[in-house]
UniProtKB/TrEMBL annotation:
InterPro entries: UCP006257, YqcC-like_dom, YqcC-like_sf. PANTHER family: CYTOPLASMIC PROTEIN (PTHR39586:SF1), CYTOPLASMIC PROTEIN-RELATED (PTHR39586). Residues 7-99 form the YqcC-like domain. It comes from the Bacteria. This is YqcC-like domain-containing protein. It holds the Pfam family DUF446. Coiled coil: none annotated. SUPFAM superfamilies: YqcC-like. GO terms for biological process: single-species biofilm formation.
Amino acid sequence: MNSELLIQLDELETCLKATGLWQDEPISAKALTSTEPFCCDTMTFAQWLQFVFLGKMRTMVESGEALPENMAIAPMAEMVLSEHLYFNAVHQCLKNLDNTIAKSA
């Protein structure tokens, strides 16, 4: 299961890069201090995926930490990325992650 999740996280990263949603410049340290869901007050959803979600999930998987139960990232993508040209690709990656984590719970 862990290797499958790591592969899916890599696929999400690849997808973000291929769709132009990946940011080459690092995010500010201040943006990372947000306490709002998805850091919605300091960064875009795509930035949150790149700078928060991917790192935290990789760390959790690699260290054997318990994964979140009932994770649902794909619905957030539906709300904020649905107008993006490559929405379907990103959305599918997130649905795959949501489903894999739901199966592991």
